[in-house]
Amino acid sequence: MGIGSFAYNLVLLLHILCAIVGFGGVMLNGVYASRARRLPPEQALGASEANTFVSLRVAEVFIYLVPVWGFGLIGLSDGAIEFSELWVWLSIVIYAIAISASLFALQPRVRVMLDLEREMLAAGPPAAGPPPQAGQLEAMGKQVGAISGVLHLSVVVLLVLMIWKPT
User: Hey, where are the domains in the chain?
Assistant: First the structure.
């Protein structure tokens, strides 16, 4: 088939579309979280739940498909792209590390934050001062922000590797 064939270009289109939908679907999560903090508790929880659904049930599927289509591109390139090339294997390693960080560091914290928001809403307004979960929610939010920052940086590194293809 080779680079430039219809099949190659179709798989390239799918690769890029999955990257846009998947990574784009999670890239602004911090903006949504920041906005949700300014909303009344019921609305904040709804915004958090909707954002988490889109991230973990929709965008994540597209993120998982990105390397599938990437491997397809390698196969369709008729040897023009090899797994042994620096940019290819390094992209695979960075992607695997980023997915692991998302699955084992980020997502569990996001789920805890949702549980804390639900607890706060169910408990109603506290008699005085902030609810007991507020401190834990804030601390967890800082951790999520830091992990997300590293994941965003990994996407930029992956883009640099895909565009400049260092050898």
Answer: 6-164
DSSP state of 38: T
Give CA–CA dist 72/75, Å, rounded. 5
Angle at 82 between CA 88 and CA 60, to 5 degrees: 40
In the structure, what pLDDT confidence band is assigned to residue 95 with cuts at 50, 70 and 90?
very high
Q: Write out pLDDT tens, residues 108-146.
A: 999 999 999 999 999 998 888 899 899 999 999 999 999
Angle CA 7–12–18, to nearest 5: 125
Half-sphere exposure at residue 115, Cβ-oriented, CA atoms within 13 angstroms = 8
Alpha carbon 108 to its chain's center: 13
